[in-house]
Amino acid sequence: IDEWMYRSILGINSGAPGFEKIVVEPQPPEGLTWAKGSYESVRGKIVSDWKKEGTKFSLHVVIPPNTTATIFIPSNENSVVSESGITLNIPYNNGYRVFKAGSGSYDFNSEWDGKFHFGPVE
Q1: For position 117, what pLDDT does the model report?
Q2: CB atoms within 10 A of CB 92
Q3: Cα–Cα distance for residue pair 104/120, rounded to 1 Å
Q4: Beta strands in the chain (DSSP E)
Q5: pTM score
Q6: Which residue numbers in the chain have pLDDT < 70?
Q7: Three-state SS at 119
Q8: Which letter, b or e, does each residue of 102-119 get, where b requires 16 or more Cβ atoms within 10 Å of its Cβ?
Q9: What pLDDT does 119 receive?
Q10: DSSP summary character for residue 28
């Protein structure tokens, strides 16, 4: 259950051997309004903390030093996504906005209807 929780619900996955690259792709199931957790990788602690209130989705992510990450933020196709209050112009792909990040702490906000809209991968 622990592995399912951090890999699916929190979305914390390795994108390269030894967590040199990290993928954070939370998959909030219907009916769950928040999840918070971390994974202690060989490179340091990775945090994923999300909350859904109505159509407002917030995601807090911490990426350890000397790593990079691809962060998938659940979002409607036409919604505005911000990080620490700054509007981002980042690609949309199947229910997510995709953000490339270095190590650090990030706070994202988006509008999301709670559904993933699968289609061709761009």
Answers
A1: 58
A2: 17
A3: 31
A4: 12-14, 21-24, 34-41, 44-53, 56-74, 81-83, 86-88, 92-93, 96-111
A5: 0.91
A6: 1, 116-122
A7: coil
A8: eeeebebbbebebeeeee
A9: 46
A10: P
